[in-house]
Design a protein that fits this description.
The structure holds 2 protein chains of 2 kinds. Chain A is of the alpha/beta class. Helix content of chain A is 28%, strand content 18%. Chain A is globular. The N and C termini of chain A lie far apart (64 Å). By secondary structure, chain B is an alpha/beta fold. Classes of the chains: A alpha/beta, B alpha/beta.
Chain lengths: 351, 617
């Protein structure tokens, strides 16, 4: 494998964002994933989302574990700090980094092996802490780097290229996150950029733990007939339960929505996401009904996508701990202990 | 049946005693969960307040309630800091262990027991004095409520011991007043219980015993503290802002201490907001991951753990070594392997910490010898971790961490400035053309690092996969090896930066003792005792790994070096051979690994044995 820098020549007429940066400025090195890999589409969606959100590249931290998905942070926003940690442990590193510096935008990219097998414990506990981050799972049902073993998200009956069909219950990241109290849960498909980009934007701006589970087919090991994570299977069985538009705080909500179908949700920074419900019965603010809906559609063999659940009211990790607003890493040392005079007083009880 | 005229027995054996002042070991056997800890603390503190040095050791079960537990107070006018391997006065409050406790008393010693209930006549020794005090009966008569009676029974034995050893009741009273400042009625009831035991002992037995306590002036300017508390305090003073941990005996009280100190000194008085984050992780793997994330983002961050935690953290420790991320890990060692004996002490993680993780890794270790060093080595650990951009492990043990040590009062240098190491700020990054993460600019093996969110030029990709000195991914042999070799240069830099060993050297001695950590007190006491037998030995206590040149020279200068450590496999000896190529024929292992703290008697005996062997050969 090689490390290829992209040429930094860009067309002068490329659109610039509010920071004067073009989309090229949000790119990374050339991907070394297989041609047609769903993950590259997710990378493109991330670039688009971050570009449109006018995030300063160096104010962003790209976190990952191990696996095909976890390589992708190298492929977007070169000027953001990246942390490619050990297998399944991205959530803990992100928790610590966020504890130290809450001013950064944290985006974690993981896979179904990284998050649902070796790292399921850390995935679960980051949610419980309502860690303020955007957590993307590039979900393809197989292990790519070790050549095609089933992952924990493989559906019952899904067939591998060789050998027996999967017989074990899959772990669904979305309903798992729902049961654990994640405050922003979305699912999408790498082949549906129109839906995916606003979902990632909402996830990045959400205050708290935002999960985006992206069905991202593995062209090499899991895109064949009989696989339930292939492009064709996903296209056939996935359906939008909500569509969302992401509105910057400065923009007006221009689109018109039919009453009952549209639901604006204001994020903590003043941004608004407007949910357009495809299914009028769906209530993305109710954990119980969202859970029931997801289960029913799953049992019917469907892949429900869209913003599945959102709660902007729960406190995130720092608020729960009662921390100062200044990032802990930036506190001046002087105020961090009571000096020798204080030490004398502290020791009174040990005399 | 108990002795009907106990004082006669006292008088009978008294002739055998040598009167000893301020040299007595009291061991108190109770049942855990009965509140005896505060009573024992009261006794220990009272003696300390009389100006007499004390050593307090807990021998406790891995259990919450109902199992035997012991507290041992060594009164040592000479100011030794290790345990003595004897019991002069046993306070046998636990029927479960009565027989064993009685057997532990030295011939000519004393056993105090609750004579409310009869003892079996089988349980007797005619070479010790039995002192029966009806503690339960007296407390049942004077106090209401089951819980209160149990607690007061503990306080009452303190009163009895105070009478037997001649502990000043005014000092006891003053301590009670300090402890229960806001609750006057508790001072009164506790004092009443003290009086019950005290008066009964005085009325029924000749007090004081030939072993007694007498006021001295040797504890002025000193405190009694455990190592975990001192380390937690040290972490706060060092400016740690993020602590992540998974509770594990015997390290838990370290984070408890950090939390308590921070709750007092790290809260903004106006907003009530905190300048620290303590995250209780889901396991040790996550705890160290959090520490790395926080350190990477620029906070001083640490985790306290014990041996099993190190096993779980190892993958990340190797990552931090290779990706060069600071981390401070306190390992309060306990008995292994596996779950081992969680409430017993050992120094059994030396090798697993020195080389934690797969691949070629080696880690900087610090070995505090007592709580004072737990305190002052804490800022040193953070400074080294950030200067060297690598994990630094503080290896204490249960003996240091959870027992009560007398140490000189702690001092803080208000001029201390944390060494944050080679971190490029926004201005420096603005000036340079391009930043390369793993370039050895200064020739000391330490590259420059940047923190996220500071400057666009500072961005780099942190990875545990093969990387070049510029920070890029690589699978190229030469590029990979270049970085791995540079890490050895850094190792040599570390050797010069770590705390120097404590060395006592006289050219007249051809042999020496070399030890580590909590072995210090016992070895120093052993040196005194051996000297009395005309065996003169030099002394070296290593305080860090890698070992300094001074340690190498020390070994070179001796014919025999007794390496005293608390594990089965001579791990310190192995590290000496491995790291500084010490001549293994010279290094004689003296190994103590039964889970109890080391004591001088063991060292003396083993040294004399080895000398005898040498002479026979």
């Amino acid at each position: 494998m090689t490390y290829i820098a992209k040429p930094k020549v860009s067309h002068p007429s490329l659109r610039k964002n509010e920071l004067g940066l073009t989309k090229r400025d949000y790119e990374g090195v050339v991907s070394t994933l297989c041609a047609g890999c769903g993950h590259d589409s997710v990378t493109a969606a991330i670039i688009q989302a971050v570009f449109e959100l006018n995030i300063e590249p160096h104010m962003m931290a790209k976190m990952s574990g191990i696996g095909c998905s976890s390589k992708t942070p190298a492929y977007f926003v070169s000027q953001a700090h990246g942390f490619n940690s050990v297998h399944g442990r991205m959530p803990s590193v992100t928790t610590g980094a966020n504890a130290a510096n809450r001013e950064l935008t944290y985006i974690g990219v993981s896979g179904d092996g990284d998050s649902l097998s070796i790292g399921v414990g850390q995935f679960v506990h980051a949610i419980r802490r309502n860690l303020n981050m955007c957590y993307i799972i590039e979900n393809n049902g197989v292990y790519g780097l070790t050549k095609g073993q089933f992952s924990a998200s493989a559906d019952i009956g899904s067939k591998p290229k060789k050998g027996m069909a999967n017989q074990q219950e899959p772990i669904d990241p979305a309903s798992t996150a729902l049961s654990l109290g994640a405050t922003y849960i979305a699912r999408s498909f790498s082949g549906d950029k129109e839906q995916l980009v606003p979902l990632i934007k909402g996830a990045l701006m959400h205050r708290g733990f935002a999960l985006v589970d992206v069905i991202s087919p593995c062209v090499t090991f899991n895109d064949h007939e009989g696989s339930t994570k292939s492009y064709s299977h996903t296209r056939e069985f996935y359906h939008h339960v909500t569509n969302i538009d992401y509105v910057q705080p400065t923009e007006e909500i221009r689109a018109s929505y039919e009453a009952g179908e549209a639901m604006p949700v204001e994020l903590h920074g003043g941004e608004v996401i407007v949910l357009r419900k495809v299914d009028n019965q769906y209530d993305p603010t109710s954990r119980a009904s969202a859970f029931a809906y997801l289960r029913d559609r799953f049992n019917a063999g469907e892949i429900t996508t869209g913003l599945l659940y959102v709660n902007e009211h729960r406190e995130e990790m720092h608020e729960l701990m009662g921390n100062v607003d200044t990032p802990l890493a930036k506190l001046p040392y002087e105020g961090l202990n009571p000096g020798n005079a204080g030490l004398k007083q502290i020791q009174a009880r040990y005399r | 049946m108990s002795n009907p005229r106990p004082w006669q027995a006292v008088l009978a054996v008294r002739g055998k005693h040598v009167t000893r002042v301020n040299d007595v070991v009291i061991k108190i056997a109770t049942v855990n969960g009965t509140g005896s800890a505060s009573a024992n603390g009261l006794l220990r503190k009272s003696i300390f307040r009389m100006g007499v040095p004390v050593v307090g050791k807990n021998y406790f079960p891995s259990n919450i309630q109902g199992l035997p537990t012991w507290y041992e107070i060594r009164v040592t006018g000479e100011g030794y800091s290790s345990r003595a391997d004897r019991v002069d006065v046993m306070v046998a409050m636990n029927a479960q262990t009565y027989a064993r406790d009685m057997a532990d008393v030295v011939p000519g010693g004393w056993l105090v027991y609750d004579s409310t209930w009869p003892r079996s006549s089988l349980l007797n020794r005619d070479d010790i004095t039995i002192i029966g005090i009806p503690l339960s009966r007296m407390c049942n008569e004077h106090f209401e409520g089951a819980r209160s009676r149990i607690l007061m029974k503990n306080i009452a034995y303190v009163g009895a011991i105070a009478a037997l050893l001649d502990v000043d009741l005014d000092v006891v009273m003053q301590l009670l007043e300090e402890t229960f400042a806001a609750k006057k009625h508790l001072v009164d009831s506790n004092m009443e219980a003290i009086r019950l035991g005290y008066d009964f002992a005085r009325e029924n037995f000749p007090c004081p015993l030939p072993v007694r306590v007498e006021k001295m002036d040797k504890t002025k300017g000193h405190i009694v503290i455990d190592g975990n508390t001192a380390a937690g305090l040290g972490a706060m003073y060092a400016g740690a802002t993020v602590g992540a941990w998974y509770p594990i005996t015997p390290s838990t009280s370290l984070m408890d201490a950090f939390r308590n100190f921070c709750a007092k000194h790290r809260v903004d008085p106006e907003t009530g907001k905190r300048t620290y984050a303590i995250i209780q992780a889901e396991d040790e793997l996550a705890a160290i991951g959090m520490v790395l994330g926080a350190s990477w983002a620029g906070a001083r961050s640490f985790t306290p753990t014990s041996g099993p935690g190190i096993s779980l953290m190892s993958e990340f420790i190797g990552f931090a070594y290779y990706a060069e991320i600071p981390a401070v890990i306190y390992n309060v060692q306990r008995v292994g392997p596996s779950t081992g004996m969680p409430t017993r002490t050992q120094q059994c993680d030396l090798i697993s910490c020195a080389y934690a993780s797969h691949g070629d890794t080696r880690h900087v270790l610090l070995f505090p010898g007592d709580p004072a060093e737990c305190f002052w080595m804490s800022p040193v650990a953070f400074d080294l971790a950030e200067r060297l951009q690598t994990p630094v492990m503080m290896l204490t043990d249960l003996d240091i961490g959870m027992n009560d040590w007398m140490i000189p009062e702690l001092e803080w240098d208000d001029n201390y400035v944390p060494d944050r190491g080679k971190v490029l700020g926004a201005e420096e990054l603005e000036k340079i053309d391009k930043f390369y993460r793993y370039l050895d600019v200064d020739g000391d093996g330490i590259p420059y690092r940047t923190l996220p969110g500071v400057h666009p030029k500072g961005a780099y990709f942190t990875r545990g996969s093969g990387h070049t000195k510029l920070g890029a991914y690589t699978e190229d042999s030469a590029e990979y090896q270049d970085v791995l070799d540079r890490l050895l240069v850094k190792w040599e830099t570390a050797r010069k930066l770590v705390p120097e060993a404590e060395i006592r050297y006289s050219k007249f001695n051809k042999a020496a003792i070399l030890t580590i950590g909590s072995g210090d007190g016992a070895c120093k006491e052993a040196l005194d005792r051996l000297q009395q037998q005309k065996v003169g030995l030099n002394y070296c206590r290593v305080k860090a790994f890698p070992f300094s040149d001074a340690v190498r020279e020390f070994i070179d200068k001796h014919e025999v070096v007794y390496v005293v450590e608390q594990n089965r496999d001579a791990q310190l000896r192995t590290l000496l051979i491995n790291d500084i190529d010490a001549d293994q024929r010279k290094l004689v292992p003296l190994l103590h690994y039964n889970g109890m703290p080391l004591h001088a008697g063991f060292v003396v005996e083993r040294v004399l044995e080895e000398i005898a062997k040498g002479q026979a050969a």
